[in-house]
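Deliverable D5.2: sample structural annotation.
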Amino acid sequence: MKHLALLLAGCALSATAMAQTPTEAPRVSGLRSSTDYGTNTGSNSRNNGFGIKGGFTASNFRGDDKKNFGDEGIYNTFHAGVYAQFGFNDKFSLQPEVLYSRQGFQGSNPANTAQTGTYDTRLDYIQVPVLLVYNFLDNVSVHVGPQVSLLTKVKEGDRERKIADDNNVYGYSYNSLDYGLAAGVEARVGPARVGGRYTAGFADIIQDQDLSKTGAKTVSDIKNGMFQVYVGIGISN
């Protein structure tokens, strides 16, 4: 009788294990397929969580007045920050981020009489992109959405500049707010992710240009553009 009871208990446990759905199965090494999550929208969805990210930035500028800069080139730098992800289902999610982004451009500015020759213009921003994420493959997604950025520091060559120049000593100042559109592709392997993204700024970098101080060439119609490559680690997903 005792052996029969043990046999029946073993059969019951085996049936329970076989009937267990993929969403109930314990996560193994973080490599579950997106289809294992079904259409869950709760905390069991893979598209929920938060983490850290950072990487390389290649930035430059765009706009009609780009032609007035000499020897213009790419400014290579970095970015880093945190992200959160809120899943609607196994395909769509929303991903806001907060990033410290050092960017800018290289070139000689005809309006800058204090800094001559070719130099780097460094612009430090706090960026807040809000991205719609679509998993078009099991572990590969596209990201697209708006981005707002706050300028925190400006450095032209070896000279640090005030963002807003009340006396307009230089003949121009910098716009403290930028906004634009970001789009990219990301791949995930377990808790890690790697991706690339391009962001186009829509606001003018330079404003309040006084041509009587800077000469005939205008530099006010230039906008941010940058390409980012990053790696990230999910903390809760």
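Annotation notes: The chain is about 10% helix and 55% strand. The longest strand covers residues 92-108.
The annotation will be released with the project's public dataset once the embargo ends.
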